[in-house]
Amino acid sequence: MPDNAQHTMHIDTALIREWQQSGDYNYLDEVVEVDSATTNSTQVVTKKGTPSTSFSIPPLAVWCCVGVLVLVILFFAVRNGWFMGFSKKKSKKKEVEKKKKEEEENETTEGTLNQEEVFGFDFQKLTAEALAEKDYAAALKYTYMQAFRLLCEAELLTWRKDATPSEYAALDTGVASEPFRRITAAYVRAQYGHYEVTEDNYAAAKADFEELNNHVNAITAERRRKAQEEAEEGERTAREKGGEA
């Protein structure tokens, strides 16, 4: 290589080193300016030429990301019915608890019927007095007692010391069975289950009693008719035998 070429290369290299060390031409600062202008977050080159790894995110951007994430979660929760499922489970739990409570309330321990109370009171009078005071629970009780005594007098039931109202209702009393069972159910519910008795409840029990009374009267009338026929038949037979004699 010619001498002048070597000298030129030597001068160029020397000049470059001089420029880099000069305060008028700061190469590293220009690099920082270029990086800052082209990107929001890159590695920053210091004046010593050592890359800095610090990374800074504005707080507002962080909260925006969190807000978007929360909205996405809520969207999928509503879309997939997560809240509805939780609500249904809670509602179902309340329904089960309510049903259990009702079953516990319906569990009653029945007492037996006192013989003196059944056969020793004027229930028609007591019922009228209870209705005058709008005590429908008492009126229902007296109506049941009157129905029970009516069946006993018709020999369709027999009083027993250890029998409960439900046990009497389970017995077959012919056509009177159904209305008596309904009256018994209403009486047991009010007397031992402590349920409120409204005017409508009593009216339904009264209608059942009237139906039962009609059945008992029909049964009693049929018995009398048969007894009459048997008596007449007996007299006829006796006369025939007397005539033959």
From TrEMBL:
The chain crosses the membrane at residues 60-82. Pfam families: DUF4129. Residues 222-245 are annotated as: Disordered. It comes from the Bacteria. The keyword Cytoplasm does not apply. Keywords: Membrane, Transmembrane, Transmembrane helix. Residues 144-207 form the Protein-glutamine gamma-glutamyltransferase-like C-terminal domain. InterPro entries: TgpA-like_C (IPR025403). Residues 234-245 have a biased composition (Basic and acidic residues). This is DUF4129 domain-containing protein. It comes from Pseudoprevotella muciniphila.
